[in-house]
């Protein structure tokens, strides 16, 4: 008889400790330690390990990607589903994760009629009737070879999987399934990690792609241990504002493609619709001829998107002015306001500043700097930015403008939407591809004062 050992594990980062702690020393979460029984590690069979090979002798099979039939999803995945990959889709409750995977399964079979085996959709949260109701709403015909299973025990799921040999598996969600091998509750760190590991081994061993749906904690991280993100090949976040119909699918980790790619969807009555031209959508309600709004050409991954940025600068009633931002980092904005004060000649000291990226996008790239600067200047001086002008460029601490990447793509996107002038860093102007014939006027500027003059026509 051996004594059952228990450890306390942090439910937010997976750190373990022999005794209970109020605050996790690793991630700083409070009251996150839960007691979990620890099993003895079973002996690992030796004969499964493979011998080392020279790199030259490793042959590459054709990396065949399965198109999901949803272009926006394909893009985020890096071109389609790689066989044997484990893909985690995280997001707030009700954002549309289950809808997305169900729609994906349906269009997958429409796109790839050669798939012989059916797909298996395992739901631990909803009954079969609820799934059927959603499928009806999404207009998924009964002809599609999608099998549904309402089950939470991993061992039972694997029984069915081994019999069925599905071509794709979806587990909705990883927090509801459990394995009998460990005694802790479903959703706990131990269970989530163990189940994900089992699924990973199965995916790699049988070349079956597996989609996991994951919940998100209040702080916005995928619930369960961080290790989950290390186990899977691809982590996609499905985000968006409840108040808006737009949903953005973002790759935060991808072993088979670029991260920072985004896919844009709109939640409609009949499910998620792809938005292939997000620039038009984000600019559709732009007010004309008012101060405090600028269109910025930003790039998400490899994709240029034109977004509207709004600013409101007003006299502060408090001693310390307020700076509130939605969609951009407030520290970056504080820094740019300091630059504006020092080199742009704007006295922002007693002014409250509010910034909003329209459409619920979150922008982190430095090329957005010039947009922030010109929008604030426009609101401060109560002068509208000239019509048909868009901007991009990184701002340095002494007010100088620095070149950014993908300048051609940004200019082309602006021209496509109907803009006639672009304000951009002068250094970008020199480096532009010679055989690009821009249909629009390009105004190269050296510092923010020049940029503000060009944008506001002063
Ligand atoms: P769901 O996929 O259940 O979200 P999750 O799995 O991420 O929790 O999406 C539920 C929300 O989407 C719900 O608020 C209703 C809405 N919805 C639509 O607007 N149209 C639709 O066609 C469907 C299926 C859902
Ligand atoms: Mg769901």
TrEMBL record:
Top-level taxon: Bacteria
Motif (RadA KNRFG motif): 253-257
InterPro entries in the record: AAA+_ATPase, DNA_repair_RadA, P-loop_NTPase, RecA_ATP-bd, Ribosomal_Su5_D2-typ_SF, Ribsml_uS5_D2-typ_fold_subgr, Rubredoxin_2
Domain RecA family profile span(s) in chain numbering: 62-216
UniProt cross-references to HAMAP family, sorted A to Z: RadA_bact (MF_01498)
Known role: Plays a role in repairing double-strand DNA breaks, probably involving stabilizing or processing branched DNA or blocked replication forks. DNA-dependent ATPase involved in processing of recombination intermediates, plays a role in repairing DNA breaks. Stimulates the branch migration of RecA-mediated strand transfer reactions, allowing the 3' invading strand to extend heteroduplex DNA faster. Binds ssDNA in the presence of ADP but not other nucleotides, has ATPase activity that is stimulated by ssDNA and various branched DNA structures, but inhibited by SSB. Does not have RecA's homology-searching function.
Protein name: DNA repair protein RadA
Lineage: Bacteria, Pseudomonadati, Nitrospirota, Nitrospiria, Nitrospirales
